[in-house]
Amino acid sequence: MRIRKFAAMFAAGVLMIGGQAFADDLTLSKGDATDLIESNIGKPYWQMEAQCAGMFGAAYAYLTDHKQPAEADRAKDDGIAMLNEAIARLQEDRGIDQPAALNLAAVEVETGRGAAKTGLERQGAGPDSYFNFMRSACYDISAAQRKHMRR
Fold this sequence. Notes:
By secondary structure, the chain is an all-alpha fold. The protein has one domain (2-146). 69% of the residues lie in helices and 0% in strands.
């Protein structure tokens, strides 16, 4: 239990890295937050999703190196989906084009990649690992954000 609590707090802390939201950025509200991501209330969705994309990118490399191709492919697919969501969110929130959104998201992708790489090297990707809790937090963020996408 102690490891789980630490990992959950660490995962939430990584997602809080970064600057303030711009006025038009859609942010995580209390009503959309799960217990796992409630420490990120007020943070922009695009920023958290871009960090998650980086985390999944690091997981893809780790899982590929550790001969887990099915898990690596899932991490790659999840990372691409999260990056696409981050870019779409930025475009909608700030009214910018895709290249500009990608440039903003790229910084956050590297933040997430670095944090996940360290966690994966220390703990691997098992059930009580930093990666597992981070993955769960990212899925919660993605689900909450999708409620707000234009149809």
